[in-house]
Design a protein that fits this description.
Blueprint: H1 5-23, H2 29-34, H3 40-43, E1 57-59, H4 61-69, H5 73-84, E2 90-96, E3 100-105, H6 107-120, E4 134-142, H7 150-168, E5 172-179, H8 184-198, H9 210-222, H10 231-256, E6 263-266, H11 275-285, E7 289-292, E8 295-298, E9 309-312, H12 320-333, E10 338-343, H13 348-360, E11 369-373, E12 377-381, E13 384-386, H14 398-405, H15 407-415, E14 423-426, H16 427-430, H17 438-459, H18 476-497, H19 502-521, H20 534-556
Parallel strand pairs: 4-5, 4-10, 5-6, 10-11, 12-14
Antiparallel strand pairs: 1-3, 2-3, 7-8, 8-9, 12-13
Helix pairs in contact: 1-5, 4-5, 6-18, 6-20, 7-15, 7-18, 8-9, 8-10, 11-12, 12-13, 14-15, 17-19, 17-20, 18-19, 18-20, 19-20
């Protein structure tokens, strides 16, 4: 496998440091840790200069070593620069400012990224940084008592994208949906459906949406005998029948949205069999369980919680905290190294509780458990905020959002913003086929390249591994595009390590912009009677590599890459 231009530069710097250590011009432990080519990509700082005149890459490594070596940064930079000039992959190297090293690769090294993309195709961008890591990703926790709302929708998109990104970085990821199917809300759900079937007022604190009527009609057709049962028995039967239908509706809508779950975990199972007893036994073994006032407590104050938490009430009833505790222990018992929870904006209080639960279980709360909090989403249509769902009687549902703008636009828009910031979705904008619409802008770039490559085939312009000469790509626009393509694997790696899939969206938007600039300034196809040249083929190869990278990025977001628009 060919290595990326960034790796070429990092390894060249590592080799220069290693040579300096051998001759004694560098001596510190800091330099010794950076002289290993195998660790260079991780440890040596590199960035892409905004001003292309400053080269392809810039490194602040000399500034980082200055204090440890007791030398001026520019002296160290000059020392390393003198050794880099003999590297065949480097065309130019210079010291800038207080000690930055600016590096320009030769055309062959810079352009090699296209070969790598054309060879790896859909695998381009995959890394091994999280290989061997087993992650449980729980990104929707919902009651099976109604349609999935907008808060669930954001996590349905972001969580699925994060799972794809983590997998691309080499992790083994299990996607999990937590079904909140226990508690008083389930009985209210059953009572609400029964009331709808009987035509009587629903409970005041019950469920009021039109979907309750729909569920009632369907259940009444399937099981007409239920309405003749005594009230308590009927409520239980309507509850279970409604539960089954509503959960299936959630599954169907998520499937249409392109979101897949490996496990649908029922909260009820935590309170049946010996699952809870196993959890309580483990916590007792760690020495953090005690009894007081007839209740069983977990001493979470041992790990910084503001108060201890009740697990089992004096009457023997398990608390919601007991469910959360048992659920975490259940996950860890299934062998996951990291349990990631994606929770809504109203769950900030859960962060400390879940982390202290992990600590009480003998785990490291800084490594075995992560909690991501997502902020609210506003929907604007016609200049006004939409707040009510016609069907659910609450905020807009996932199903309604998809009906308005489609799966691609909904997913892309929900993913492209950091989850820890509130966001606004302008539905009118997302329906437009203009460059103002981010998802259209990126998809159009892919479709535009696809059309160009179809034309290239008709004109006899070859593009592939056997038709590419990177030394012909010397225009500034070409080098900008090549440099951006080389960054993609690092962007995927960052998105995985930081749990930020929005980085993928922002990258492919920038890539689309760079492509449009290249397309305007660098003619790809021959015109008129012009003969096909190697330059046409080289540029067509660059186009194919760009299309593949955009497609790979969209795939990580669960968004399609159309070839025609």
């Amino acid at each position: 496998m060919s290595i990326s231009p960034q790796n070429v530069v990092a390894e060249a710097l590592a080799e220069a440091i290693s040579d300096a250590l051998k001759e004694g011009t560098l001596t510190s432990d800091g330099a010794k840790s950076l002289g290993d080519k195998g660790e260079a990509v991780e440890n040596i700082p590199l960035e892409r200069p905004k001003n292309r005149e400053h080269g392809d890459y810039a490194s602040s490594i000399a500034l980082a070593l200055a204090k440890k070596e007791g030398k001026a940064p520019r002296d160290i930079a000059s020392l390393l620069t003198s050794k880099l000039t003999s590297n065949k992959a480097i065309a130019r190297v210079e010291v800038a400012g207080p000690g930055f090293i600016n590096i320009t690769l030769n055309k062959l090294s810079q352009g090699s990224i296209v070969n790598r993309i054309l060879k790896e195709q859909e695998k381009f961008g995959m890394t091994t940084s999280l290989s061997g890591m087993s992650i449980n990703l729980e990104f929707i926790s919902a009651n099976p008592t109604g349609p999935l709302h907008l808060g669930h929708t954001r996590w349905a998109a972001v969580g699925d994208a994060l799972a794809r990104v983590l997998s691309a970085a080499g992790a083994k990821v299990v996607r999990e949906f937590y079904i909140n199917d226990r508690g008083n809300q389930m009985d209210l759900f059953g009572a609400s459906i029964r009331a709808a079937v009987l035509g009587i007022p629903r409970p005041e604190d019950g469920y009021q949406g039109d979907y309750i009527e729909e569920l009632g009609k369907l259940i009444d057709v399937q099981r007409p005998e239920l309405k003749r049962l005594p009230e308590s028995e009927a409520i239980a039967e309507f509850r279970e029948a409604g539960y089954s239908l509503q959960l299936q509706q959630q599954k169907d809508v998520l499937a249409e949205f392109g979101t897949h779950f490996d496990i649908w975990f029922s909260e009820r199972t935590l309170h049946s069999g010996d699952d809870w007893n196993k959890s309580l036994k483990k916590l007792r073994e760690q020495g953090h369980v005690y009894e007081s006032e007839g209740a069983i407590w977990l001493r979470t104050t041992d790990f910084g919680d503001d108060k201890d938490r009740v697990l089992v009430k004096s009457g023997g009833e398990l608390t919601y905290f007991a469910s959360d505790t048992a659920y975490y222990l259940n996950k860890r018992g299934r062998g996951f190294d990291i349990c990631i929870y994606m929770l809504g904006a109203d769950h900030h209080g859960y962060v400390a509780r879940l982390k202290t639960t992990a600590a009480c279980a003998g785990d490291d709360p800084e490594s075995n458990i992560e909690i991501l909090i997502g902020q609210m989403v506003k929907i604007i249509e016609g200049g006004e905020e939409l707040k009510l769902s016609k069907r659910a009687g609450t905020i807009i549902t996932l199903e309604e959002l998809v009906e308005k703008v489609g799966v691609d636009a909904a997913r892309y828009t929900l993913i492209r913003y950091p989850t820890d910031t509130p966001m606004v979705m302008d539905l009118d904008l997302l329906k437009r086929r203009t460059n103002e619409n981010p998802v259209y802008y990126v998809q159009y770039a892919h479709a535009r390249i696809s059309a160009l490559l179809r034309n290239a085939e008709e004109l006899g312009v070859k593009f592939g591994l056997d038709s590419y000469n990177p030394e012909l790509l010397e225009h500034d626009r070409e080098r900008e595009l090549l440099g951006a393509l080389a960054e993609y694997p690092e962007i995927v790696d960052q998105a995985a390590r930081l749990r930020q899939p929005h980085r993928i969206a922002r990258f492919i938007e920038e890539l689309a912009t760079l492509y449009h600039g290249f397309y305007n300034d660098c003619r790809v196809l021959p015109m008129g009677e012009e003969k096909v040249s190697d330059l046409h083929s080289a540029r067509a190869c660059l186009c194919a590599a760009t299309a593949q990278t955009i497609k790979n990025g969209l795939s990580l977001l669960g968004v399609s890459a159309p070839e025609r628009m």
